[in-house]
User: What shape does this take?
Amino acid sequence: MDMAVIEQKLTAQSLNDLARSLGADDSGVVSIDDPLLEEDRPFILRAFPAARTLIVLLGRMHREPVRSPARSVANLEFHSAGHAIDETARAVVRHLEDRGIRALNPAMAFPMELDSFPERGWIVSYKRAAEAAGLGRMGIHRNLIHPTFGNFVLLGGVLVAEDVAEHATPIDFNPCMECKLCVAACPVGAIKSDGYFDFSACMNHNYQQFMGGFANFVEDIADSGSAAAFRQKNSYSETVSRWQSLSYGPNYNAAYCMAVCPAGTDVIGPYQASKAQYLKSIVDPLQKKEEPVYVVKGSDAADYVAKRFPHKRQRFVRSSLKVTSVNGFLGGMRHVFQPGKAKGLNAVYHFIFTGSETRSATVSISNGRLTVDDGLSGLPDITIRADARGWVRFLAKEISLVRFIATGGLRIRGKPSLLAAFGKCFPS
Assistant: This one.
């Protein structure tokens, strides 16, 4: 675009025009003071203290590659579309910088700020930002659905060190049709028909090739005394696949929820023409595919795969979401809680942590639901008082329960069986 076309005064329209001229298929502009960015704001300002405005960039993905049961094809599309969005963001920064306007482009996905992983790695939660920017709404599969392009999109952004007078507003409807095809296609049952999302099931399978799954792979190498022992934990094809992830970009094991979603005016036609043919050509190949499915033993996902997809090969792995701190334990509990394992359990837990981290919390499990509140409230059925570092080591199975108690690091008041029942709700 000729720079003379861009108005001298920065406006939302001029920023959108710039973004779309440089490759974005859609975009929206929001203030970092937007209520939907409240959780992200401290991380945005840590990365770029001058930030005042966020341009959310949206790029289309090609639908058929994402739908392919051949994961190499789908992954190539993810990476290609992701690189394109990052290049668009970089081009926007270049144009703004040439005008003397400070701007910064956080990555659309990777690399991330992983110094506190798994508590948080991203600077901007682009799905929330895209909702604020009027680019769509999240469906029950937790993917953003654009009204036109559906969920076949990737998101990026540019932080700008200037305020603009006008901002986008969220759309007033959700394009999600609640057809539940994502529920039917998910190989690990992470998406529930009632709207519950089992984050850990998705993480352990889909992200097995990188992040926490890669850390477990390294520990497998360290713990193996021989090549034969290592191959008992990781097959030849899995090891080669990890090399591919390191060399060409991380391999996602599934994006079936995205692949089968018919929402969006550009996407919905075949589904409306014949639901039966849509199921046969798009959903069935993913459901019938014989493939390894990565689950934690004793998890709801393991039970689901055995019942729903017996032809898929269960591969038992350790959880990809490691607890590295008490804050991470309390904050991450909702991500690994297994409602199916909590049936019949109704109890209130008081946790009191001392030592390197001083925290107290009330954890309630009732009717398959979990609540975690700061501080101690109500009458507990069991009280757990623990040294913070020792608790993290206990969860990592570096110290036994008996030794933890014997050394004075853990004291329990109440029925010990409730602690065992608690553990079953969080298999690792």
About this structure: The CA atoms of residues 115 and 244 lie 24 Å apart. Residues 326-424 form a domain with the Nonspecific Lipid-transfer Protein; Chain A fold (CATH 3.30.1050.10). The chain has three domains: 3-160, 181-316, 326-424.
